[in-house]
Amino acid sequence: MTKKNDKGEHETMKLDRRQFIKQAAISSAFVTAGTLFPGISFGEWSKLTNNSGIISWQKSPCRFCGTGCGVLIGVSDGRAVAVKGDPNCSVNKGLCCMKGYHSVQALYGKDRITKAQVRKDGKLVEVPIKEALDLIAQKLQETKDKYGKDSVAIYGSGQWTIPDGYVASKLFKGCLGTNNVEANARLCMASAVTGFMTTFGIDEPMGCYEDIDNANVFITWGNNMAEMHPVLFSRMLANRKQRTDVKIIDFATRHTRTSQAADTSIMFRPQTDLAVANAICYEIIKNDWVNWNFVNEHVSFHKGKTNIGYGTEDHFAFTDQAEPMSFEEYTTFLEDYTPEKVEKISGVSAKDIKYLAALYGDPSLKVTSFWCMGMNQHTRGTWINNLVYNIHLLVGKISTPGNSPFSLTGQPSACGTVREVGTLTHALPHGVVMDEHAREMAAEIWDVPVANIDPKPTYHTVEMFRALDRGDIRFIWIQVTNPMVTMPNLKRYREGALKEDRFVVVSDVYPTPTTDVADVILPAAMWIEQEGMYGNSERRTQHFDQIVDPPGEAMSDTWQIIEVARRLGFEKQFPWNQDEYIGKIWEEYRRFHAGPKHEMASYTVLRERSGVQWPFVNGKETRWRFNPKHDPACSNGKDFDFYGKKDNRAWIWARPYEPAAESPDNEYNFWLNTGRVIEHWHTGSMTRRVPVLHNAVPSSYVELHPEDAAALGVVSGEMVKIISRRGEVTMPAQINGRGVPVPGMVFVPFFDESYLINEVTLDAFCPISKQPDYKKCAVRLEKA
Question: For Mo-bis(molybdopterin guanine dinucleotide), which residues are the binding ones (predicted)?
């Protein structure tokens, strides 16, 4: 239980008898679970029965996905022992998913890394963390001196806190002079970024989660929201239960729990979402459902280069090119995408295409489109983002409550730490490295010569690990991510990391296949063992205090970077002391975003609230951007102001359908699709140490359609070999489980390091966003 005192703080409360019995039962369950799965190290939860019985509660965002649920962490005797939803957080309104409710248990696995380790004579041995930090600084400097500034790199994550990413960028881009800064959000959100930039000239959604409460129609584009964003999906279900006119449309390549809950489920062939989106636009124009007032005032039409390849070549570079086109030219372009023609390409009936178009085109309906990895992990990820925006722009259903094209994020701070802070090779906390003004601003704030900031981007994520393989990069520091599980075409990049004269530093909380290739391992503080901020999918910045102490010599990734920076001679740029550095870093970072287009809340305000949406101007959050009723940055005197583009208009793009980089053929006759399950998060390094979650799904599997399983002669639980041109993996089959692929497709969750499915996947990527396509490649199956 909790209550607030006069200062708005959560008071400590004594456990009553009922709560104590419940807590004891939970503790017993964890002790039992620890004996069931000897391969996974669980926390020593038996100690909870001996605590004082006093719990204090403090706010935090959840550690897991990009939804940004607010939670209250219960602490007893210096240990996090309980979690409940924060009723003051507008994101989840007191509700959590199963991962959120069990999140604190991820802190207490028995194999937690608490000491630094250095590889000596081929073996990792524990050393004092000071020795490890000295070695990192020494190797970084030696590598830079011998091979040049672009031979050193840092690879982070959308799980980085905002201060983590900020100091990483400041050290590497500002002080060391290399743009070798990337984050694993390149693997999940880069196409969303380039989609926003090419259509609107500015990044991040224009809407917010309140759209869920206002929409009549929800269309999920290749997005299993019921499992991937369950709290948001529950808000959609609640809206539908309260109102009779609400519909949920599942548009997907595989039947999932979202399909089961939807009013209509429409299956399409992989990659053909491009053609279907164009067919919807064709129907909107044909039936005169265009919102002409909106289009004439606020939209312009463009075409770009189309022969852009698939991002499979080394050193591949591509910059999108735009040419204006007329509405008549755009209409002519769409003539190749009639519903009847697209039915043959996509497998979606002309009737269903017309139905989708009618939903978007009905002026009485408010429509919100949701998507995540299904569109972004796509060799034409930028294009499909553009095409869904095209639909909303043609009918003017954008930037008003309930009318929103909404790209969801997968990681807790992929927006805040990667997109806002700019921890990608081309980006700065404001603007891009190619822009002189942005470099000058960064140099002034960082107190470095402007010449330090290189105007040329270096390596995006896939190319960064290719460069490590080639030897162009010799030193890499990996924080808060597990690329030796997540990289596509994985064998190539693991072998590259193990080559002679490569030095790999890994900061993490548990052993992983990535720590296995490390020369130095640093013990990292986890989530509420440090102070920090995340930024969620709806532009909401969420602060959390350090609530419990990290174990052993573990320290935050922010402070690890600061320690190394000082050893390299950059004390002036990193002057903060360990007692108050987060607030000072935040206020320095805020200077990059001053002004009504991106103003951030102060450190004081963030500490008071369960998240604040930006732009935060004159004490008020901005719910819907580009709409002058809500957005103080609008200044053109019209109903909407798409101020990201020089013409103050949103751009509709003519983007064609193109087939996938690799499609099934006679030899490799199945599609492979990869993704997640509700119980586990990303590579499972945290959730597989939570007994309840591990017990629910203890290992990965391959989903098959029943007809394909019968033809192969396998039943659930039998082993199946999945083979591609790059590798193979053998794993148990699942037939008629929670998800059912269409015939000719298999689906594999990637959370289990025992089954490295990314040894099979293809490292082709969208040439504009540089984001790889994990959603489709060609495989064949054999009964093992």
Answer: 99, 159, 184, 188, 271-273, 373, 377, 482, 507-508, 557, 674-683, 758, 775
The arithmetic mean of pLDDT across residues 569-573, rounded, is 98
CATH fold for domain 670-761: Barwin-like endoglucanases (2.40.40)
At residue 321 the predicted structure's pLDDT band, cuts being 50, 70 and 90, is confident
Which segments are annotated as binding site for [4Fe-4S] cluster? 62, 65, 69, 97
777 is catalytic: no
Task: Please check whether residue 530 is in contact with residue 517, taking contact to mean a CB–CB distance below 8 angstroms.
Answer: no
Amino acid at 50: N
CATH 2.20.25.90 residue ranges for the chain? 13-108
Q: Six-digit token pair at 322?
A: 């735009």
pLDDT the model gives residue 50? 54
pLDDT of residue 441: 98
Look up 373 and say whether it is catalytic.
yes
Instruction: Decide if 600 contacts 616 (C-beta within 8 A).
Output: yes
Return d(Cα 200, Cα 644) in angstroms, integer: 6
pLDDT at residue number 53? 74
Question: Listing from the earlier edge strand, what are the strands of the sheet with 299-304?
Answer: 322-325, 299-304, 650-654
Question: Which one of 59, 99, 173, 303 is the catalytic residue?
Answer: 99
Residue ranges for the binding site? 62, 65, 69, 97, 99, 159, 184, 188, 271-273, 373, 377, 482, 507-508, 557, 674-683, 750, 758, 775
Taking CA atoms, 125 is separated from 40, 129, 353, 478, in Å, by 22, 12, 60, 19
User: CA nearest 519: which of 127, 114, 146, 182?
Assistant: 127
User: Is residue 535 flagged as an active site residue?
Assistant: no
For residue 542, give the nearest of 74, 88, 5, 192 by alpha carbon. Answer: 88
Contact at 8 Å (CB) between 83 and 95? no
Indicate where the chain has its CATH 3.40.228.10 domain(s): 190-401+643-654
Question: Where in the chain is CATH 2.40.40.20?
Answer: 670-761
- Per-residue pLDDT tens for 502-543? 999 999 999 999 999 999 999 999 999 999 999 999 999 999
CB neighbourhood size of 629 (10 A): 12
Which CATH number applies to 116-127+134-188+413-574+585-593? 3.40.50.740
Strand ranges inside 598-744, DSSP E? 612-613, 616-617, 620-621, 650-654, 670-675, 702-704, 719-723, 728-735, 740-741
For CA atoms 504, 486, 163, 128, the dihedral sign is: negative
The pLDDT tens digits for 420-432 are 999 999 999 999 9
User: From the candidates 89, 96, 188, 206, which is the catalytic residue?
Assistant: 188
Task: For residue 418, give the DSSP letter.
Answer: I
CATH topology classification for 13-108 = N-terminal domain of TfIIb (2.20.25)
Fold of 190-401+643-654: Dimethylsulfoxide Reductase; domain 2 (3.40.228)
Of 23, 105, 117, 411, which one is the catalytic site residue? 411
| pLDDT one-digit tens code per residue, 721-749 | 999 999 999 999 999 999 999 999 999 99
261-289 mean pLDDT: 98
Catalytic residue among 373, 464, 487, 731: 373
Contacts of 180 (CB under 8 A, 6+ apart): 150, 152, 153, 154, 172, 425, 458, 459, 464, 473
Q: Which residue among the candidates 410, 422, 496, 532 is catalytic per the annotation?
A: 410
Taking residues 149-161, report their average pLDDT: 98
pLDDT in the model for residue 312: 75
> pLDDT tens digits, residue range 662-716?
999 999 999 999 999 999 999 999 999 999 999 999 999 999 999 999 999 999 9
DSSP per-residue codes, 203-252:
-S-S--THHHHH-SEEEEES--HHHHSHHHHHHHHHHHHH-TT-EEEEEE
**What is the rounded CA–CA span in Å between residue 291 and residue 396?**
6
CA distance 391 to 395: 7
Residue 320 pLDDT class (50, 70, 90 cuts): low
- Is residue 359 within 8 Å of residue 367, measured between CB atoms? yes
Q: Is 188 a catalytic residue?
A: yes
